[in-house]
Design goal:
The chain is built from twelve helices and eleven strands. Strands 1, 2, 3, 4, 5, 6, 7, 8, 9, 10 and 11 form an eleven-stranded mixed β-sheet that branches.
C-alpha cells in the first residue's frame, strides 16, 4: 500500500511539472526587445519542439529579479543583455556554468572564463539623431561625447536609466573607463541638463527620436537601425570620435533553474548558424563566423572602440549604479 502511494505521488508530481499536452517547456527572462524576441523564440520552438514561456525585462531588471529569486529560481535562461550584466550575475551567484559544444572558437572576451555566460552577438553604442530636428535646429548630428553637452541639444536627448538598462549602464561604464570615475560623473551631471527623460528600456529612445518626441537617442547601433532607419524613421546614426563602448550580448543558465537540460539546448541553438542568421532582421553582428551579417549592420572594425573591460564593468556595476542614483538623483 505504501509503495502504491509513493508511485501515485511521483506520478502526481510529474503531471504537475509537465503540461497536459506533453510538450517540454523552457522558462526564460529575455532582455531583448519584445518584437525582436518574437523573431527568435517561435523558430526555436519550431526547430526543437520545446515550448518557451518568457518574460521581457530590461537587463538590469532581469538581474534584480534573478537576485530576488535566487533561493527559488523561476526560469532557466537569461537571454540577451550586455556581458557586463551577466558578469555581475555571476558575481551574485545566480548563474551556473555551461560550455556549449562548438565547431568554431568563441573569442576570449565572448565568454566567461568558467563559462557562466556565453556571448552570441556584438553591438556598439552610438547616437541616433532625428534629421528633421537637426535641420530645424540648424545643428549637425553629434560626433563626440562633448557634443551631447551643447546648448542646442538641451532637453532633446533620451537615454535609459543605467540601473534598469544594460544599454545605459554600458554608456556609464564606457565613460568611467574613458574619463576616470570622478570626471565621468561630472560629465553625466552636465549631460543630465540636456536629457529630456530617462527610459526603462535602452532601445525605447530610438522610437521616440524617430517620432520626433526627442532629437537624439543614445543606444546600441543595432537598435538605432532596427527601430529607427529600418522602420522608415529619419534617424541619422553617428559615433563618438573619441571612441565608444560596446556589448558582447550574453546568455546565462540560471543556477537551480527548473529546466537545465532544455536551457543547454537553447544555448546550443542560439549559437547555431540557423539562429545567428535570424539576427540579420535586427542588424546584430553574430559571433558565429559562418553566419551572415545584414547589410548596413555596424561591425566592430567600422567604429572606433575603446579598450572596453567588460569584467571590470561587471565587477563595478553595483557600486557605480549606487553612486549614479545618489549623485544624479534618479
Amino acid at each position: 500500500m505504501r509503495h502504491t502511494l509513493t508511485v501515485l505521488a511521483i506520478v502526481a508530481a510529474a503531471a504537475w511539472a509537465i503540461p497536459v499536452q506533453g510538450a517540454q517547456v523552457l522558462h526564460m527572462y529575455t532582455a531583448l526587445d519584445t518584437a525582436e524576441t518574437q523573431l527568435y523564440i517561435p523558430e526555436f520552438e519550431k526547430d526543437t519542439g520545446i515550448k518557451v514561456e518568457w518574460v521581457r525585462l530590461s537587463s538590469g531588471e532581469v538581474l534584480a529579479r534573478l537576485r530576488a529569486e535566487a533561493k527559488n529560481p523561476q526560469v532557466s535562461v537569461w537571454y540577451g543583455g550586455p556581458s557586463q550584466d551577466h558578469i555581475a550575475g555571476k558575481k551574485a551567484g545566480i548563474s551556473t556554468p555551461y560550455k556549449p559544444p562548438l565547431d568554431w572558437t568563441l573569442p576570449a572576451n565572448a565568454h566567461d572564463v568558467d563559462w557562466h555566460w556565453v556571448g552570441y552577438y556584438f553591438g556598439a553604442i552610438g547616437f541616433g539623431s532625428n534629421a528633421d530636428f537637426l535641420k530645424k535646429a540648424g545643428v549637425p548630428a553629434p560626433t563626440s561625447w562633448d557634443d551631447l553637452l551643447k546648448p542646442a541639444y538641451k532637453g532633446q536627448i533620451a537615454i535609459a536609466f543605467p540601473y534598469t538598462s544594460g544599454t545605459s549602464y554600458t554608456v556609464l561604464a564606457t565613460l568611467v573607463q574613458m574619463m576616470g570615475e570622478d570626471k565621468a560623473f561630472e560629465y553625466w551631471k552636465k549631460l543630465h541638463a540636456n536629457i529630456h527623460h530617462y527610459d526603462k528600456s535602452g532601445s525605447a529612445p530610438v522610437t521616440q527620436a524617430g517620432l520626433g518626441e526627442v532629437g537624439i537617442a543614445v543606444s546600441f547601433s543595432h537598435d538605432l537601425i532596427a527601430k529607427g532607419s529600418a522602420k522608415g524613421y529619419p534617424i541619422a546614426m553617428t559615433f563618438p570620435r573619441e571612441g565608444t563602448g560596446y556589448e558582447i550580448g550574453g546568455i546565462s543558465l540560471i543556477k537551480g533553474g527548473p529546466e537545465p537540460e532544455l536551457a543547454k539546448k537553447f544555448v546550443d541553438w542560439a549559437l547555431s548558424v540557423r539562429a545567428q542568421n535570424l539576427m540579420q532582421q535586427w542588424f546584430r553582428i553574430p559571433l558565429n563566423p559562418k553566419a551572415e551579417v545584414a547589410k548596413g549592420a555596424v561591425r566592430a572594425d567600422q567604429v572606433k572602440l575603446i579598450n572596453f573591460d567588460a569584467v571590470k564593468a561587471g565587477d563595478d556595476r553595483d557600486r557605480l549604479i549606487k553612486r549614479w542614483r545618489s549623485e544624479i538623483g534618479q
